[in-house]
Amino acid sequence: MNKKEPFCRANSICPTPQSILLNFVRTNDIRNLKRLVSTNPTLLNYVYKTDLNKPILLIACTETGIKPDTVEALIDLGADLNYASPYDEDWEAIHFAASYTNSHILKVLLNKSPFKVNSLAKGNNALHILVKHGNHDLDEFLKCAELLVNSGIDVNQGDEKNVSAIFWAAKKDYADFIKLLLDDNLLNVDLDSHKLREFNTNNYDYGRILFAYLKSNNETAFINFKNGEIIQMSNLDDSYNTLLQLSCEKGLNEAVQHLLNKGADPNLRTEKNSKYPIEIASEQGFYEIVQQLLDHPQITLPKKLIIYLLKNIDNEKFPHKDHERCYEILLSKLNVNNNLADVNFADEYGNTALHYSVRYAEAEKTQELLKLNASLASKNIYNTMPIESIEPELLEKHLNDCIEFNTKSKTIEKEDFPVTFNYRSIIPPIPKKDVCVADYDPELKYKAFSEELVKETEVVFYMSHAPEFRHLLKHPVIVSFLFMKWHRIRWLFFVNLLFYIMFFTSLLLYIIYSFANFNEEENTPFLNFVVYLSHLIFAITFFILVLRELFQIIVSPKKYLMSFENYIEIVLIFITGCILCSPNADTDYRKQLSSTAILLSAFELVLMVGQHPKLSTNVVMLKTVSFNFFKFLLWYSLLIIAFAFSFFILFTNPTSEQPKNSTDTEDEDMFTGPGKSLFKTIIMLTGEFDAGSINFQHFPILSKFIFALFIFMIAIILLNLLNGLAVSDTQIIKNDAELVGHIARAQHIHYVESMLLGNIFPEKFVNFLQNCCCCIPNCELIVARPLAKRSCLFPHYLPYEMTVYPNKQGEVVMPKTVRNRRFLFSSCASCHKIYLDKETVRRTNSIIQEKRDKLKVKKECNQLDKRIEFLLKIQQENKEKLDLIIENFLSDKYV
What we know:
Elements: H1 17-26, H2 30-39, H3 56-62, H4 68-76, H5 93-99, H6 103-112, H7 126-133, H8 140-150, H9 165-171, H10 175-183, H11 206-215, H12 219-224, H13 243-250, H14 253-261, H15 277-284, H16 287-294, H17 305-311, H18 323-336, H19 353-360, H20 363-371, H21 392-401, E1 403-404, E2 419-422, H22 442-450, H23 458-465, H24 476-515, H25 525-555, H26 557-561, H27 564-581, H28 587-609, H29 616-635, H30 637-651, H31 664-668, H32 674-684, H33 700-735, H34 737-756, H35 763-772, H36 785-791, E3 801-805, E4 811-813, H37 816-823, E5 834-835, H38 838-894
Antiparallel strand pairs: 1-2, 2-3, 3-4, 4-5
Helix pairs in contact: 1-2, 3-4, 3-5, 4-6, 5-6, 5-7, 6-8, 8-10, 11-13, 13-14, 13-15, 14-16, 15-16, 16-18, 17-19, 19-20, 20-21, 23-34, 24-25, 24-28, 24-34, 25-27, 27-28, 29-33, 30-32, 30-33
């Protein structure tokens, strides 16, 4: 998971301190510069984006118009002279000053840090960079060279090609530069050769000799130097590379082996080159060097190594260079020791190794990562999980592998035969936080604990929505996971159900005996007590209901508004609030509120009871049939409306023909207006035609034809279609009731989990405030964390896996700590036992038997291969003997 910065500034109306500092430097406003940096020293280390890509000191060394005093002020304030820009060949401040031929700034840098004069950037010192990139036409060029020479720069230093600066000057015909170096009697300039070929080991630095051998790819000389006794020099560096780093970059396999044998640290890096030696070798694809480094007992693997190799796994292969081979070597090492690397490490885009594998690599490589517990629930910055790109067949194969048992066990038929379900790959990766025991702090412990809680149902929730994965919800690994998740949150369901039953009962009693009681007789004392108690409970539960809904809206407004059930609750809260706040309203108003409240609250109770796994299928049938019914009916609503208006026009009595002294006809005529006509037409859909009261006299032929057409098309055909649709939907759900139940359970558990682990401060709202004002910090508060702990499985309840005894009716083996807690509330051993359902146990046994059969076939194939190999060996021996006999026979014959 990506760590959030303490402050975020994006599109703020306030100018950023970084832009203010840059302006002060460009205008040489030293006084305000010092004042700003003194209040915020971290500004000196900020790396500017866009075209700059440097901290402020390097910018000051590259832009024109900036005075040396400004650079000196930055250094005095603490600017890092050692910072090497990764965007500019790892150049430091002294290299930029030399490149831009700025003698004044170069002088300041040398005065402030004279020991930096020989600092190297990929083998180049400041003199190399001056000759290669400086402007020779300026008078400043020779001044810069003189400053560097007088400061003691090594004029014989070789660059990455082991070429000295004087050679580059000769190549560019810089005669004045060469004259400057030769006129200095104190300099021992190597004029015999621009490359170092021979060394006087009595007077020459051993380290430079070793680096020169490596740069010239002379492994033999490197290994034989001082008869191979370089134990004290094995970790030398030239300020940019260590000997091992350079050997890995050059692909010198024997040199790497020699250094490791002589005690070189396989993890040693320099300030300028932060890459591990194994990282350098992997980038080049030197698989032999990678193998040697992985075999070292003290090797440390970079976090992004697996991702890099996966991204380059299809690179072209060359002799001794093969990225795919490097990846295979690394994976084989991780299979032995999974703690060497974090397979769930995410890059700058939030992608893990599994993200790249499911898209670009072969299925076998994806399966290998999954066996190493790579998470299918890791989300990148686009909220995409690896499971969204994986093939269903591969996922099913992996889920089968998650059912672990002893393949060599001969006690498979015994009761105590254990089977383990491994859940590590279906839950999000849990961020690790190291807590020092010596620095124990309760607040730190709470923070470490908070980072362990994650949304565990992300993968299962996605599977419940993706048609290609839904059938896998019946897999024993998924079913057992959902079963245990429900086992953890069922207490919350029953508490919520009990609370709502109290709300519903108190609302019903209050409406019947008080709010909608229009009986003028005075209540008995008992009824008065019932009214008072129901009103009190109704008020308390109503307040709790409002708080519950507000909490859900704040934590996850998008999820809340996407649920139809929540809209019922909003309307119910509004209506019950009106009932609670207006006990003395008029009779008609109270009747309408009461009837609506009873209907909505009862409907909500039915939906809430349907959240239980054993009843979820019934509610799913109700929802599915209702939705499809109304969707189908909506499509034909135009015909129903058309018939309603036709009836209104045909069956309405003219005003002149209506009786003057009677209202009976008007009361009985349902087609006197468009609204009444539509209502009557809808009633007629149920078969209540009441044809005797319909006036066919005015248009006897047309009206009867249209009425008959209505009966045929709507009452007969359409209603039978709707009934058939309902029966079909019901039958489909009944035929796959188990899968429907798993889907409903997964979605309900995910909703509850997202609420319990949701942040009470909306992320988008906080981001909006941060965009408006730069001083708003990132806020995160999960108020339901105690409830979340009791709802999450890992790591406080189960250790990312669960053991089951299939031959004991699917008995679940609970961890010892959980059993001890449960024994506090139970007096017998059998009270705390949990059992999986029979169908899940049956599927588990089936998968176990299938895996055993495959292993048996594989074993037989291996034995057959060994027999064939043995026969081929005997055949070869007999062939050799026969050839020898023939040869002896022919030789005797000629003799």
